[in-house]
């Protein structure tokens, strides 16, 4: 773990625990780089402007990430967190000087077994930003897993599906892929899959999705940089169909995307 290229102090990291204000992106480091790296960096720049009202030096972020990546053997998960250790809860309006924290961990073994999800009413604060405020999402995931499910699927106050705790969800209906129209994080992997869907001629669109109004023949999958593409077996008591042909094509196309070097 490095903060601006050097090991962080306990005081540096205390801000993340005590103030918990910042944003991040997590990428899967492969041999040669990262799929969709440019999109991840664009999101960091956008979120930094939203949270801190400053322009993030993306070239510097790349150099710091490149330095950290050179110290590990891929595959690995690399997280880039942007925060200001000097920003306080009492006076968060102070002019910010964001710093860049890089940490790397081994990539988890790929899991392809279908997930069983529990639907919970929850909306992340400022859902368009990948911010560090994960308490609500982790709490709902914990409750779902302790109830015997694999993970949690969020629905908003109007009953519309939005996203999962740390992933996007897509539904396969009538030969199309439906992404939820409710407010959610625009995931990088989902954006890459949109490009793939266009290439293979599968229509994709954003649709208001209510679980009680989904057609009987419906499939679903979750996706993120860490998960990749994983099918959904059921949501609460409702069993879903599986679309192995389409998901296999998406996996193959996704894995064929050439990694971008830092």
What can you tell me about this protein's structure?
This protein has 262 residues and is an alpha+beta fold. The chain folds into 2 domains: 2-106, Aminotransferase class 4, branched-chain amino acid transferase, N-terminal domain (D-amino Acid Aminotransferase, Chain A, domain 1, 2-Layer Sandwich); 115-255, D-amino Acid Aminotransferase, subunit A, domain 2 (D-amino Acid Aminotransferase, Chain A, domain 2, Alpha-Beta Barrel). The protein has 6 helices and 14 strands. The strands form 2 sheets. Strands 6, 7, 8, 9, 10, 11, 12, 13 and 14 form a 9-stranded mixed sheet that branches. The protein has a 5-stranded antiparallel sheet with strand order 1-5-4-2-3, sandwiched between helices. Strand 12 and strand 13 form a beta hairpin.
Features:
alpha+beta, nine-stranded mixed β-sheet, D-amino Acid Aminotransferase, Chain A, domain 1, 2 domains, D-amino Acid Aminotransferase, Chain A, domain 2, five-stranded antiparallel β-sheet, single chain, 262 residues
State the gist of this model.
Keywords: Aminotransferase, Transferase. This protein has 262 residues and is α+β, with helices and mostly antiparallel strands. It contains six helices and 14 strands.
